[in-house]
Structures are given as C-alpha cells and as structure tokens.
Amino acid sequence: MTGILVLAGTPIGDISDAPPRLATELTGADVVAAEDTRRLRRLTQSLGVQPTGRIVSYFEGNEAARTPELVEALVGGARVLLVTDAGMPSVSDPGYRLVAAAVEKDIKVTAVPGPSAVLTALALSGLPVDRFCFEGFLPRKGGERLSRLREVAEERRTLVYFEAPHRLDDTLAAMAEVFGTQRRAAVCRELTKTYEEVKRGPLGELAAWAAEGVRGEITVVVEGAPEKGAGDLDADELVRRVRVREEAGERRKEAIAAVAAEAGIPKRDVFDAVVAAKNAERTGP
C-alpha cells in the first residue's frame, strides 16, 4: 500500500494556536519535511513533542530536487508530514510541487487545518469577505509590480497580498497609483503576535504611513473595485481608469469606450475628463 501525505498548518504567531492534531502527526510521521528544520525544532520543543521519524528540509531552494525523494517514500508506504514556517503549506510556501506529484501517483493527500494569515487578515480587515482572491507576493521590480496590479485593477472581489516590510511603502504607493488613493485597504501586521496591529484607511493614507517604516510579517487586504455601472465616479476616477487600460496596452479610444460602458455614462463625458486632465498637466498649477 502507498503512504499518505499530510499537510499541517502551523501557528502564524501564538504557539497556543497550534491544532491538537499537529503534535500527534509530528510524533507519528515516518518523514517530517520542514521548510526550516531549526524552526521545526523550536516548534516541537514548544509543543513538548519529539518526532520519531526522519527529518528533512524542504524549502524553495531544494523543493524541486527533493520532491522525487519524498514521493518515493510515499510510494513505499511512508506517512510524510509537510510543515512550513507558518500557516498552511502550499499557500505562498513550499508544497505545491509535492502535492501535485503525489496526486499524479494516486497517493492520498490530507491536511491538518491550522492558522491562516489570509483568512485572519480578511476577518480583521473590516472589508467585504463574501468574495475574495489571494494574490500572494507581488513582483519585486517596480514595473512588473505595476503590471500585475493593473491586471486586477477592475477586480470586484476583495484582494489579499503578502508583502515584505521593507517593500510595503512601494507596494502601497503602487496600489494607490493603480487602484486610486481612496480605495479602502487594511495593513495587518504581526498577526496573533505581541505587537499585532491592523491599520485601516484609504490607500493614499496608508502609503504615507508606511513611508515612515514598518516592521514585521505583513498581509495587505484591499477593497475590490466599485461595481460596474456606478454613476457616481468623479472625473479623476474616470481618468485613472482610462490610464490603467492604456498602460495595459489598449488604445485610448478603446479605453475611453470601455470605461464609459463600465460607468454607464456617455463616451463624451469620459473623453472630456481625459482632455481636461491633459490640459491641466500641460498648464501646471
């Protein structure tokens, strides 16, 4: 008989959030694959358990090379437990390759549900949570980051991102540029930890706040785009939407027509707003 792959959620901060089954799985697994074996050691010490199986590292740098070895163990009947540094494996963490390979071999895959920074941040954000999409980490390079944001500029579902603290100010500034300075958002920092903080407000204000420097693990939740057909869009928002489409490769005429259709207003109104904005840029303050 083949073995079983167990994906186990680990605490994102407070160790007492560890699911009870985690301790059982740690002691009963034949192989424990950990993103960081040092963090695994601290986790097991905190839980007061001692793994009896073989411990191997499984992180971004060796994920592709180590996956066949773990699949071989699974085919041989082993119970393999996968844990990452925090939260659920595969969610912006190692795990996808191993799950895909196990599924291909018809190996059973199960999970020990645990804490999730994505769901915790959503719940605390104060933004709509009935529909959302997780976008993970944005590209590090500015141009690529803007391109990725433009892809979801008109996404109506709430957006969730992970971000490094030293890039947060640039990311929020880019979001304000693409989504608009008044789009609501929440920056969730150090969730479930001693210095937990949730900063809520318009993207423009959050970008200015982050420019002073922010530390810790960061999850950003952003309100979805306004519903199409909303007739209360001001001239600045109409111009912003046209520019987002132009920067994504659309011709101005097509962009104006699309924005007018979304807002439920005549194309001439959008055209006039674009022309007025260009004239204002030429004349200056």
Q: What class would the helix/strand composition place it in?
A: alpha/beta
Spatial separation of the terminal alpha carbons: 75 Å
Helical percent range? 40-55%
Biggest pleated sheet: 5 strands, parallel
Number of helices: 11
Widest β-sheet, arrangement of strands = 3-2-4-1-5
Runs with pLDDT <50, length 5+?
Answer: none
- Residue fraction in strands: 15-25%
Give a count of the beta strands, DSSP E runs of length 2 or more: 10
Mean pLDDT score? 93
- Shape by Cα distribution: elongated
Kindly describe this structure.
With 285 residues, the chain is α/β, with parallel strands linked by helices. The protein has 11 helices and 10 strands. The protein has helices at residues 20-28, 37-47, 63-75, 96-104, 117-125, 142-151, 168-179, 203-210, 235-247, 252-263, 267-283; strands at residues 4-8, 31-34, 54-57, 79-83, 108-112, 132-137, 158-163, 184-189, 197-202, 218-222. The strands form 2 sheets. The protein has a 5-stranded parallel β-sheet, sandwiched between helices. It has a 5-stranded mixed β-sheet with strand order 6-7-10-8-9, with helices on both faces. Helix 9 (235-247) packs across helix 10 (252-263), helix 9 (235-247) packs across helix 11 and helix 10 (252-263) crosses helix 11 (267-283). The N and C termini lie far apart (75 Å). The model has no long low-confidence stretch (mean pLDDT 93).
